[in-house]
Amino acid sequence: MCLLLGASGVGKTLLVKRLQNILPPVVGTDLTDIMAPRKITIRELGGCMGPIWSSYYGNCHSLLFMMDASNPTQLSASCVQLLGLLSAEQLAKASVLILFNKIDLPCYMTMEEIQSLLRLPDIVACAKQNITIAEISARKGTGLAGVLHWLQDQHRTRG
């Protein structure tokens, strides 16, 4: 199981739809299965469901945490959510991919600006999890092949 978490409006649903276009999907009612070549189940939970995210941690092998790179105010709030996720004992062994979406917008923050604002190197250094960071545009498809490759690698090693 891969959890896809992030604040409302960051592009989670679009990411899942775009990943489905890369490979043939099998869609369930509240989960999305992507065949890559093994089945990877992605459970997307919206930002408004943040208070109950922890009830879904149990079977989580990997975590996609999505942030809006064009919204500095929301980035700060999302960082607080991320810190909560990284400190959750049930997610201590999950691999984490932090996705900075909306890099296609003219007002997006550069990775250097984001790292400075969020103190991202400190977060990565202190986390128990293996963390990878990527910039993407779910709308234009930029970086999605890398997301798929990361998912395949994580779920190949989890057997």
UniProtKB/TrEMBL annotation:
InterPro entries according to UniProt: P-loop_NTPase, Small_GTPase_ARF/SAR
CDD domains associated with the record: Arf_Arl
Residues binding Mg(2+): 13
An annotated Gene Ontology molecular function: metal ion binding
Binding residue positions for GTP: 6-13, 47, 101-104
Keyword Chloroplast applies: no
Keywords: GTP-binding, Magnesium, Metal-binding, Nucleotide-binding
Highest taxon above the source species: Eukaryota
Protein name (database record): ADP-ribosylation factor-like protein 16
